[in-house]
Each structure stands twice: as C-alpha cells, then as structure tokens.
Design brief:
The protein is α+β, with helices and mostly antiparallel strands and about 150 residues long. About 40% of the residues lie in helices and about 20% in strands. The protein has one domain: Nucleoside diphosphate kinase-like domain (Alpha-Beta Plaits, 2-Layer Sandwich), CATH 3.30.70. It has seven helices and four strands, in the order E-H-H-E-H-H-E-H-H-E-H. The chain has a four-stranded antiparallel β-sheet, sandwiched between helices. The chain starts with a strand and ends in a 7-residue tail after the last helix.
C-alpha cells in the first residue's frame, strides 16, 4: 500500500462541486484508494510553501509555484492506495495539464502550470516529508490538521 499526500490546490479548492468530483474520482474508480485523513482547508504561508516545494528551488517556475500555492486555500488529504505512487500519479495526470492524458484529473480540472488542480506526492519519502511539514505547520498555528 502506498501512502500519499494529496492537495487540492487554490485553483479548485474554493469550488465545492469540483472538490467533490475529484474526491469521488479518487475513491470511486476502483484504484484501491482509502482516504485516511481529511485535512482542513488552509492557506500556505510563504516559508512553509518554500519548505514544501524545496525540490523546485532553482527551477524557472519555483517563484510562480510559490506565488500560486500561497494565493488561496488548499485542502490536504492523506490517502493509501493499492496502486504504486507512479501508477497513482499516472491516473492523476501529467503535472502540466496541457500534456495530461484525457480522462485524468489534471486534464479535466487543471488549466496551465502551476494551476494543475492537484498535488500528489512523488515518492514515499516525499509523502512522509510533506505530511511532516504540514503537521508541524498546523501544530505551530495551534490547529489540528488531520481529522
């Protein structure tokens, strides 16, 4: 079983209908997905966003990614899946929605980078790191992230 962090990004998180559709797709399509922890809606601060996306530091699109992810609310989920992380990411779609395969979540709900609707951890190590960053962020804000 793969444990993964899924984020609904600012481009979709404020639309309850889209959030519901994405969650239904994640759970209804026999991917062996179980939502383990449902997070509250939250806003990244710049420091936490930079920690979260530290792997992009130095990339041309780092600044636009940070500006986008801090521009509005996100919703976080911890899921487990029978799919491997690469299989799950393939079902979610290419990070560039314009290159995503038809039928994938990013194809349906993303527009242009960085507005690709969903973040999905790219490895078990990344999932653990990302979950720890968000857990610490909310602990410092005296909020409970995971329900």
């Amino acid at each position: 079983m793969s444990k993964v962090l899924i984020l609904l990004k600012p481009d979709v998180s404020s639309d309850p209908d889209v959030c519901t559709k994405i969650l239904q797709e994640l759970t209804d399509i026999n991917w062996g997905i179980d939502i383990q922890k449902i997070g509250i809606t939250f806003m990244f601060d710049r420091l936490t966003a930079e920690q979260f996306y530290c792997g992009l530091k130095g990339a041309d699109h780092f600044e636009s990614q940070i500006n986008f992810i801090t521009s509005g609310p996100c919703v976080a989920f911890i899921i487990t899946s029978e799919l491997t992380i690469p299989e799950l990411r393939k079902k979610i779609g290419n990070t560039n929605p314009q290159k995503a395969e038809p039928g994938t979540i990013r194809y349906k709900y993303g527009t242009v980078l960085p507005k690709n609707a969903v973040h999905c951890s790219d490895s078990s190590d990344s999932a653990e790191r990302e979950i720890n960053i968000l857990t610490e962020f909310f602990k410092n804000k005296n909020k409970c992230l995971w329900r």
